[in-house]
Amino acid sequence: MALTGRAALLAALGSIPVGILEPGWTGLLAVNGPLALACACDFALAAPVRRLVLTRSGDTSTRLGETADVTLTITNPSRRPLRAQLRDAWPPSSWQAGTEIEASRHRLTIPPGERRRVTTRLRPTRRGDRQADRVTIRSYGPLGLFSRQGAHEVPWAVRVLPPFTSRKHLPSKLARLRELDGRTGVLTRGEGTEFDSLREYVPGDDTRSIDWRATARQSAVAVRTWRPERDRHILLVLDTGRTSAGRVGDAPRLDAAMDAALLLAALASRAGDRVALLAYDRRVRALVHGSSAGDVLPALVSVMAPLEPELVETNARGLIASALRTAPRRSLIVLLTTLDAAPVEQGLLPILPQLTQRHTVLVASVADPHIAGMAKTRGSTEAVYEAAAAAQAQSERQHTAEQLRRHGVTVVDATPEELAPALADAYLALKAAGRL
């Protein structure tokens, strides 16, 4: 039982403070008899909170930056009308800053034996699972002098998926893929290409593609055309160790790596290739393999949603061993990790031949655009020192990348906005060169 602000004001006009009305509650007891009677009646006529029946329905997932609507159905089984304020509590990251009070609080009136619905609109600011907290209801009497309050546990979860902002690049990459498939252009011969058809020779064609037997059977010179092989295997490896926690702009590096992985997965599945995912630091954090082309993207998005960087040093040997177990056949292994000198030179490089001798390896890393901006600053002593530090950092990354290239690794080093299309272009270049 709680004394409302209205009752406190009335009581203050003609009452004296006393002790405890009942365990856990303090308040004012009016000396005026009619006021005390009115308060008692108001409390008695307030609908009980504990007997209310609450259920949930609505969205169970949404993309980061979008909204999700979760509906509460409140049934009033009592014989008294319910006049109440309701608070639907969720974690703070379920709303943008400053909007929680407006979004989570509702006023409602429910006649006896009826039910009403209220909708809470979430707009999460972080990936992962958002679990509903308690629903607190304050039931008022008809005079608004006293209220009953109670809480109900009504479980519900909304999974916040990665935003996949790089999907805007997918149409242009698919157009390039169609060219590689030979639908709008002619391909050259490569290790990973297979015979497609014959056509008439035109000036500029590679003479090595001339089919002399077919030429002998007709009056024109015939050349072979080739198209990339399909049904290749691609393993996306997300390094979720401490280096993935470094923030570039407003998000950790891991988020940019996920976005690039999603674009590559969408493109590769359209190309007829099989895509798998491994997330690892000191143990396997997520694993997706064996999914069909139509199911792989939803599966990747779902397992990526709760992934968070772990503040531990990645076990490079364990990562390589897990990648080899996940990709027993020859595959393109895309390792999304750091190009920092120490983790690569001390952890990855000594055991990299175990991957390169069996697979084609591509390393993709998120570069900090702030470093490039620092390298161009001038005008003061402090700016010159910043430019020197940035130039040294860029030189170390380039040296690390060159070491990887000497092992036959393709390296993509780009800012968060450029990483996804750059990685897709590298995949298409490998496919065009017949290296898959």
Automatic annotation (TrEMBL):
Gene3D superfamilies: Immunoglobulins. InterPro entries: DUF58, Ig-like_fold. GO terms for biological process: carbohydrate metabolic process. Residues 198-370 form the DUF58 domain. PANTHER family: BLL2464 PROTEIN (PTHR33608), SLR2013 PROTEIN (PTHR33608:SF3). This is DUF58 domain-containing protein. It comes from Streptomyces broussonetiae. The lineage of its organism: Bacteria, Bacillati, Actinomycetota, Actinomycetes, Kitasatosporales.
